[in-house]
Automatic annotation (TrEMBL):
InterPro entries documented for this protein: Bac_GSPG_pilin (IPR000983), Pilin-like (IPR045584)
Entry keyword Transmembrane: yes
Keywords: Membrane, Methylation, Transmembrane, Transmembrane helix
Listed GO biological process terms: protein secretion by the type II secretion system
Source organism superkingdom: Bacteria
Protein name: Type II secretion system protein
Species classification: Bacteria, Pseudomonadati, Verrucomicrobiota, Opitutia, Puniceicoccales
UniProt source species: Rubellicoccus peritrichatus
Length: 185
């Protein structure tokens, strides 16, 4: 008759082994268990890594937001410019000067009034500057803007020459703190 030895006891005499000593609730007394959760240290490391990634991503997000603002303003200026130029071609004259946030009545059908009367993305108001208002024949102005000068220089580089004191996009032509796209000098 053959003796069957259980797999776990191959090569050992189970009777000769000394029993394991129990050490109670000492730390690391049961090293054979598997963990199923993160430790506090691991969680803190994870929080620090996520924080660092967020800090690194902020400049890129800010640059993307600024690019979006610049694109939208450029588009708005070009749409309004096209509408006012179309009116001038149709009638042979520019609309009369208007106030901030008010689209001249004669422009109805050329541009949506609510688009012109809503605040700009720079928190300013659109303003139509008609013939002779500020030493030029026609211009589209943003008044009361909170945009910083560096942002406006980059916008000027897109619309004009990058210099807020020269060209067709200028600072302070209509009034202090305003930015004007001059359509006709």
């Amino acid at each position: 008759m053959k003796t069957v030895i259980p797999f776990g006891h191959l090569g050992r005499d189970p009777c000769s082994e000394s029993p394991k000593k129990s050490v109670g609730f000492l730390p690391f007394s049961n090293l054979n268990h598997t963990r199923s959760a993160f430790t506090l240290v691991e969680m803190m490391i994870l929080v620090v890594i996520i924080g660092l990634l967020a800090v690194l991503a902020m400049p890129a997000l800010e640059k993307a937001r600024e690019g979006s603002y610049k694109s939208r303003l450029t588009n708005d200026f070009r749409q309004f410019k096209g509408a006012f130029e179309t009116y001038a071609l149709d009638t042979g004259e520019w609309p009369a000067d208007g106030g901030p946030g008010t689209l001249p009545v004669v422009m109805d059908g050329y541009v949506a009034a609510d688009k012109f009367e809503d605040p700009t993305i720079m928190d300013g108001q659109w303003d139509w500057d008609g013939p002779g208002a500020f030493g030029f024949e026609a211009g589209i102005t943003v008044v009361g803007s909170n945009a910083d000068t560096e942002f406006l220089r980059r916008l000027d580089a897109t619309l004009d020459d990058g210099n807020l004191g020269t060209g067709v996009f200028q600072q302070g032509v209509a009034s202090g703190g305003s930015y004007t796209l001059i359509l006709e000098d």
